[in-house]
Amino acid sequence: MIWNPECECMSTAARQAMQFARLKNLVEHVYNTVPFYRQKLDAAGISPADITCLADIAKLPFTTKADLRETYPYGLLAVPQAEIVEVHMSSGTTGTPVVDAYTAKDLDDWAEGMARTLNGAGACKNDTIQNAYGYGLFTGGMGVHHGARKMGASIIPISSGNTQKQLMLMRDFKSNLFACTPSYALYMAEQAKEMGIDVKSFSLRAGCFGAEPWSENMRKQIEEAWGIKAYDIYGLTEITGPGVGFECEAQNGMHINEDMWYPEIIDPDTGEPLPDGEKGELVFTTITKEGTPLIRYRTRDITFIIPEACTCGRTTRRIHRLYGRTDDMLIIRGVNVFPSQIEHALIEIQGVEPNYLIVVDRNQVTHLDEAELQVEVNPEQFSDETKEMEALRSNITNVLKSKLGIMMRVKLVEPKSIERSTGKAKRVIDNRKL
Ligand code: DLL
């Protein structure tokens, strides 16, 4: 059974008419209430009256992560602050976070998107859903929570980590579905095996996995290890969190909840829209959002819109499993981090040079990401005293943990030992075969 057939199985013509009406409303509203958008549209020579059909969306300027940072904390608010009932922020960023502020209606839309997502994975009211995404500013925990609540399922809000207890509750409360990052799902299975626990004897049928890149190969491993169906789910803080796109029983691309979050694919170099079927950068306009609406937000995620209709009966368009990003953002154990943030953190530490290399691997046994940061020590500080070097190393480790929220193995290397480049410096070696 499809959660919301009225919205998910609409004819294309009806949906496009609805999307156009919502888009037009949105543009008029933000032009009149958010100085940031008024200036942006004025600078582009566009007025709300120029939006006369859905394709006119291409006339509108893009919004970027930099815009969100510059308007922190509430510069993009399109309603009085009293209307905001919840706030989330993107994970693991130093300095200025990226904010999403929700009105009660926005939370309901988010819950709706997540209820459709859980339903896509076969969940219903009678199920017990174990939510092993982190609760807090990250959208994973609360997103799944709101969706499961809307569905009326029993929620186990255990959050991430605490693996032994996760397994115990899964068994004792007969969880039918669980949600977490794909790497944590594999890690949990591995731990269970070591503890002699047979997870296939549990009541689990399915899992919703996302928030980081994964592959068909990982899907197979998860499905085999747990004896479940593993579904890919997509979303990002800026748009709403998880619930933007989800796989159905066909497990062949993620349906976008495009009555709320309108997708486009653009050429990342020229910004020109690309037709369905062509790979490029995913862009979203939040056509129903009240709190912090976004016009043509550049996600930097690379995918394409699958032109064929899905066998499940939903008519919402699907995106292909993500191919990667157009920027250098890394996701290490679910935490988003840019190499430039590591560089900033290093500059503030005495004794090191901002010459560094990040090497990311996925441990073949635990299936968790492991990141090593090689940093050059400056010639004055470089010493044979292991004690001094060890103190510097642990200082860097602590700064990375507290400022960026990531655990990295730090390796100090001799001055001038990291290869210099005559062009763009190579800062990252990603050995994960995703
Ligand atoms: O990761 C929201 C989320 C939570 C999605 C739980 C799914 C499940 P952010 O922390 O803002 O939000 O990170 C968003 O993560 O732009 C993608 O690059 C990446 N990402 C999210 N889902 C997937 C996925 C949450 N299924 C960024 N496959 C996005 C690959 C994903 N990458």
Describe this structure in words.
The chain is of the alpha/beta class and 434 residues long. The protein folds into two domains: 1-327, Rossmann fold (3-Layer(aba) Sandwich); 330-430, GMP Synthetase, Chain A, domain 3, CATH 3.30.300.30. The protein has eleven helices and 21 strands. A nine-stranded mixed beta sheet has the order 4-3-5-6-7-8-9-14-13, with helices on both faces. Strands 10-11-12-15 form a four-stranded antiparallel beta sheet. Helix 2 crosses helix 3, helix 5 packs across helix 6 (139-151) and helix 10 packs across helix 11. The protein starts with a helix and ends with a strand. Residues 90-91, 133, 139-140, 143, 210-213, 232-237, 241-242, 299, 301, 322, 325, 331, 336 line the site of 5'-O-[hydroxy(phenylacetyl)phosphoryl]adenosine. The site of 5'-O-[hydroxy(phenylacetyl)phosphoryl]adenosine has 24 residues, from helix 6, strand 7, strand 8 and strand 12.
List the helices and strands and how they pair.
Blueprint: H1 5-8, H2 12-33, H3 35-44, H4 65-70, E1 84-89, E2 99-103, H5 104-120, E3 128-131, H6 139-151, E4 154-156, H7 163-172, E5 177-180, H8 182-194, E6 206-210, H9 216-226, E7 229-236, E8 241-247, E9 254-256, E10 261-266, E11 280-286, E12 297-303, E13 305-306, E14 318-319, E15 324-325, E16 330-332, E17 335-337, H10 339-347, E18 352-362, E19 369-377, H11 386-404, E20 409-413, E21 428-430
Parallel strand pairs: 3-4, 3-5, 5-6, 6-7, 18-21, 19-20
Antiparallel strand pairs: 1-2, 7-8, 8-9, 9-14, 10-11, 11-12, 12-15, 13-14, 16-17, 18-19
The site of 5'-O-[hydroxy(phenylacetyl)phosphoryl]adenosine has 24 residues, from helix 6, strand 7, strand 8 and strand 12.
